[in-house]
């Protein structure tokens, strides 16, 4: 079997087009322009690229983008004061603090200081609790993107066996909650899981979010299963230079799976598209308006 490649770039372009339509309606019918504030502390090169890309795409879909770049040695007090200012600003409907933060800053404290209604990353403890109890929340962007691609590929996910490999707060745990919400039978596997290959072999859906390059080989995959690869790892090429790979070993998994997301060009582009979707959702909710269809969990 050769897997169908789930094209995350094309999918993300489609999500952004839907966001842009909704933004146009918000502007033309209601006179509201959604606004997204992104806060970057320090000069991590990858974070700088992601933040630039977020700002560019925010403007492309017709929303206002507010970028706040702070020095790496910014104090917690200054960062919290900025977040309080953004919480109070009616032009700002979404707030995102780019992670990772420098080590001297307490990420949990910072994230939990964001107004949950503006927490477009879905990382605030209130949103975590709402998602865990099946209530309306802001949903973390990467798992939301994975869910959208899975729904589009499978139609209904009801009754499917899903194995999420990785238990991070940003991907693994919310992904498991979303799959449970769609009536999958869900297992969260991790570094201490006994006989990981046997666990993964039961899965109709494998979400690889463990953060280790090419860790999941094709022999672990049930023929016809769907592999969603959340990993973004840079490895050395034998001929020199580097390349990006996922947490699944692409070639051997693609030979067995029914469908697979590539790296790059799979889950990654959906992360930013879903951030824009969450911002338009937050703006609609803040104004008591109908939420965009197909852009929420
Ligand atoms: N506050 C947040 N911080 C971080 C998040 C997040 O969702 N919220 N996620 C990641 C970084 N990230 C967005 O912030 C992100 C990662 C990857 C991509 C992406 O499109 N990747 C491309 C490859 C890009 C490359 O060439 O390096 C792909 O997979 O095709 C977008 C956004 C950590 N921080």
Q: Please state the oligomeric state of the protein chains shown.
A: single chain
Domain count: the total is 2
Could you report the average pLDDT, rounded to the nearest whole number? 98
> What's the arrangement of strands in the largest beta sheet?
1-11-8-7-5-6
Bound compounds, each kind once, are: the ligand Nc1nc2c(c(=O)[nH]1)N[C@@H](CN(C=O)c1ccc(C(=O)N[C@@H](CCC(=O)O)C(=O)O)cc1)CN2
Poorly predicted runs: none
Major beta-sheet overview = 6 strands, parallel
Q: Give me the CATH architecture of the largest domain, please.
A: 3-Layer(aba) Sandwich
**CATH fold name of the largest domain:** Rossmann fold
Percent of residues in beta strands: 15-25%
Q: Report the count of strand segments.
A: 11
Classify the helix fraction into a percent range: 40-55%
Structural class, by secondary structure, is alpha/beta
Distance between the termini: 31 Å
Number of helices: 10
Radius of gyration, in angstroms, nearest whole number: 19 Å
Question: What pattern of helices and strands is seen along the backbone?
Answer: EHEHEHEHHHEHEHEEEEHEH
Pfam families: THF_DHG_CYH (PF00763), THF_DHG_CYH_C (PF02882)
GO molecular function: methenyltetrahydrofolate cyclohydrolase activity; methylenetetrahydrofolate dehydrogenase (NADP+) activity
Domain Tetrahydrofolate dehydrogenase/cyclohydrolase NAD(P)-binding: 140-285
Subunit structure: Homodimer.
């Amino acid at each position: 079997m050769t897997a169908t490649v789930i094209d995350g770039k094309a999918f993300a372009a489609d999500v952004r087009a839907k966001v842009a339509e909704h933004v146009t309606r918000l502007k033309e019918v209601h006179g509201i322009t959604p606004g997204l504030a992104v806060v970057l502390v320090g000069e991590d090169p990858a974070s700088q690229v992601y933040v630039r890309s977020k700002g560019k795409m925010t403007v492309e879909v017709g929303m206002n983008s507010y970028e706040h770049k702070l020095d790496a040695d910014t104090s917690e007090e200054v960062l919290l004061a900025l977040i309080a200012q953004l919480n109070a600003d009616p032009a700002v409907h979404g707030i995102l603090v780019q992670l990772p933060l420098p080590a001297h800053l307490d990420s949990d404290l910072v994230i939990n200081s964001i107004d949950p209604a503006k927490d477009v990353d879905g990382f605030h403890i209130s949103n975590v609790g709402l998602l865990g109890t099946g209530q309306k929340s802001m949903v973390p962007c990467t798992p939301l993107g994975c869910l959208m691609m899975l729904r589009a590929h499978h139609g209904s996910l009801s009754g499917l066996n899903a194995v999420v490999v990785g238990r991070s707060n940003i991907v693994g745990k919310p992904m498991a909650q979303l799959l449970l919400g769609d009536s999958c039978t869900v297992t969260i596997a991790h570094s201490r899981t006994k006989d990981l290959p046997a666990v993964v072999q039961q899965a109709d859906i494998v979400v690889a979010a463990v953060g280790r390059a090419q860790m999941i080989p094709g022999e672990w995959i049930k023929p016809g299963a769907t592999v969603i690869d959340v990993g973004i790892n840079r490895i050395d090429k034998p001929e020199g230079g580097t390349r990006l790979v996922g947490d699944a070993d692409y070639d051997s998994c693609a030979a067995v799976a029914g469908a697979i997301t590539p790296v790059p060009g799979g889950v990654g582009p959906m992360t930013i598209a879903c951030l824009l979707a969450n911002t338009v959702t937050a703006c609609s909710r803040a104004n008591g308006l109908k939420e965009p269809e197909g852009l929420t969990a």
